[in-house]
Amino acid sequence: MIYMLYLISMSILRIALLFAFRDMKFRRMITLLNIVIIASGIGAFTALRITNAGSRIAAERIVTNILSGEILVYGEGLYDMSELAVEDIESISGVAKALPVMLVVGYMDGSLAFIMGVRSRDLGEVVSEYVAGGRFGENDSRVVIVESNFAETRNLSVGDYVYLKPQIGSVSIPYKVVGVADIGMKIQELSVAGTYVVVPLREAQDMVGRMGYVTMVMVKVDKGASVSAVKERIKEVFPEARIFEREEVMSIVNKVISLIDGLLMSSTMIGLLIALFSTASTIMSNVREHARDIAVMRSIGIKMSYVATIFIVEALIYSALGGALGIVLGIIGGEALRNMISSTGILRQPLIIEPTLLLFNYLAALGVGFMASIYPVVKASQVKPVEVLKNE
Fold first, then answer.
1. Does 165 reside within a domain?
2. What is the pLDDT of residue 161?
3. Looking at 215, 240, 265, which one is the last position of a domain?
4. Does pLDDT of 83 surpass 90?
5. Residue 181 DSSP class
6. What is the 8-class DSSP label of residue 255?
7. Which of 11, 117, 203, 272 has the fewest other C-beta atoms within 10 Å?
8. Residue-wise over 299-309: b if at least 16 C-beta within 10 A, else e?
9. Above pLDDT 90, what percent of the chain?
10. Residues 341 and 367 grouped into a single domain
11. Both 82 and 110 in a single domain?
């Protein structure tokens, strides 16, 4: 019995494939157009999902790179966090270290520069590796550590002088290069627009006329300590301060990415709907053309479920071919989008291709084909053999 069912199933599948390939052969243009429509919808869907995955990883890298500590403490304004608060924060239970940072946007030798003012003893949290020269001391002034890429471009070396000027200032001041280094604590992607330099904290404060104040205090938490609990203790000591956890910043970034992704996905769904209706129209046209064949099969006792299989298989062939092409186009499109976004300097994202994502998108293509076959199958079931054959 099972063997008989197997033979019947194979026979029906063979007939379905013969019908499908015959239709595809004689209606090449319509077939090709239908496959392209499915491929474009799946391709756009795949490219956006790949881009979204890369964007999230790039955003996580940005937050991790620029936020050396687990907690950020800001004042009410831009430069009104007292430097004296550092000692009070370090005395709080669960705090391993507090780093005062002054971040100033300015220019170096006419190029946009992100000037970070830090204490000499905190340079280890900022500089990844020295290429030439070394660190500055607590009492050094008018000294700067420049980024290795910028130094190479401008042929700068230790002992040379560069001119720094904050955006709000009008005078460029010469600074001696004491170190060329890879700067780790930075937003890597902004390096496309400008460069990073590190100066003594006092120098950065003097640039904006805010001695004794910093942009923020980055707090590193003891291993095993609760970040949320430490945050609450800091809030008790500084009730007016703005305090953020690194995870909160990442959560906000993810929400923004999700919002943008949702808007883009909405437009992509329109493409999938067009693919669905296009496939349904093609299969419906085939049902009308094969009305006589359907009538003959029904009149000799072939079940309607077998007849339905013919058109379902035909729709699945369209969607299988379109889905495969769409996956390929999606990967190519994802790479193109990645390069385009990276070229703007906003994000430098990796190309993330997850096998589960590709499998899901391919199954989505097959789902489009199956749903597109439902209405034509219903219409095929309504074909009356007597009337069709009588008209013949």
1. yes
2. 94
3. 240
4. no
5. E
6. H
7. 11
8. eeebeeebbbb
9. 10
10. yes
11. yes
Instruction: Give the domain range for residue 381.
Output: 10-62+252-391
206 lies in the same domain as 272: no
Question: In a 10 Å sphere around its CB, with 0-12 CB exposed, 13-18 middle and 19+ buried, how is residue 278 labelled?
Answer: buried
Amino acid identity of 243? Answer: I
Determine whether 253 is exposed, middle or buried from the number of CB atoms within 10 Å of its CB (0-12, 13-18, 19+): middle
Report which of residues 10 and 278 the model is more confident about.
Answer: 278
Q: Please state at what angle helix 304-344 crosses helix 28-66, rounded to 10 degrees.
A: 40
> What is the rounded CA–CA span in Å between residue 320 and residue 335?
23
- Number of domains comprising the chain: 2
pLDDT at 189: 42
**104, exposed or middle or buried, with CB in 10 Å at 0-12, 13-18, 19+?**
buried
Per DSSP bridges, beta strands 173-183 and 161-166 are antiparallel
pLDDT at 69: 57
- Judge whether 4 lies within some domain: no
* Over residues 261-270, mean pLDDT: 70
Q: How confident is the model at residue 38 (pLDDT cuts 50, 70, 90)?
A: confident
Count other Cβ atoms within 10 Å, centred on residue 379.
Answer: 16
Statement: residue 77 has pLDDT above 80: no
Do the domain assignments include residue 110? Answer: yes
Dihedral sign, CA of 199, 201, 203, 206?
positive
Structure letter (DSSP) for residue 131: E
**58 φ/ψ sector (left φ>0, alpha ψ -120 to 50, else beta):** alpha
Cα–Cα nearest to 85, from 206, 222, 212? 212
